[in-house]
Protein: Glutathione S-transferase family protein
Organism: Variovorax robiniae
Amino acid sequence: MIPTITAFAQSPDRGKGQARDMRVRWALEEVGQAYDVRLVSFTEMKQAAHRAVHPFGQIPTYEEGDLALFESGAIVLHIAQQHAGLLPDDPNARARAITWMFAALSTVEPPIVDLGVALLLERDQPWYAQRLPIVRDRIRVRLGELATRLGDADWLDGAFSAGDLMMVTVLRRLNISGLLDEYPSLAAYVARGEARPAFQRAFDAQLTVFNDASKRG
Amino acid sequence: MIPTITAFAQSPDRGKGQARDMRVRWALEEVGQAYDVRLVSFTEMKQAAHRAVHPFGQIPTYEEGDLALFESGAIVLHIAQQHAGLLPDDPNARARAITWMFAALSTVEPPIVDLGVALLLERDQPWYAQRLPIVRDRIRVRLGELATRLGDADWLDGAFSAGDLMMVTVLRRLNISGLLDEYPSLAAYVARGEARPAFQRAFDAQLTVFNDASKRG
């Protein structure tokens, strides 16, 4: 059975692959699972039909027969548990890879989202310029700790895993901030993720959606 | 083998059970697994020995033989996968319960943490009073959506699960904000979680640590 995911009909990132459907697309490409995509507009996302699947009115969702999931972390974990290729077989290594998924979403992403919120929603506020360096410094703390742990390894814990997939997509959200450039080993880590053929297929797929939407106007 | 977790030697919440070790203690109590606790000071948390287990210098951690984990979400999921009692057996229901764990940590908790950061670190900033209502409104959006989904059910998806455990501990962080009082069904949901004997045993255990530390001065 081919699962169906949802994605933005018009992604606000203008095809940069920073929306959270990218994580799910990448995971599906890594394990070689075909998928269908249902595009939803910002209006549709907040309506009852979509909220029946995603209570918080967001994308992505994942539907497969009777199963309906939301939250990119939960969806990627589900895919990784159903197919080989994204989690090690050894139980301890598997638990550690899942730990990195949670670390990406729960420890590294929140200050990055906070920066995005500041840039998007607080730019006209009187405190914007004064608060921005504080928000950026909070991200630097996490990036420094992550760079220390990564060291000169290719991936966070042995072979590439769903933990790396999640961390790379989280770090990619820093693209316009310049912060990643301050941590060359993390920039190289992200580039390694982006160089994977599965990433590229997923990226091209979401870019096609954006380009098609732009053509329609 | 009895696992060892870490917790604050002196919790900044003054025994209210809002630190993230509470999630792990509660999960261990729900499944009836005994555990040891190693207390760490704020200084120790940031040192190399602790960072070898937790790269971001936080609590809790979980050590069991050769396995060392961090991130409360990953630890609770590990416990729930090793023991019966926190996840349904049906594969689809299981995936949905795990989805609620991610929703708690990745969608509901970040704006709540943002409020905590504002209260703790930005109180002396010139923008504090002006920005606070915006931060609180962002939390209200999530609470409204969560209350709509919960409806008049006891738990988020069928029987109590690790998803509820995580969501209740996230919502408990709102205690001093007054925000939970605006959503009576969510306040009742949190109270249902707190009434569970396993919650109470976990709460008492962390309170004892705080009281002992206070006596030592």
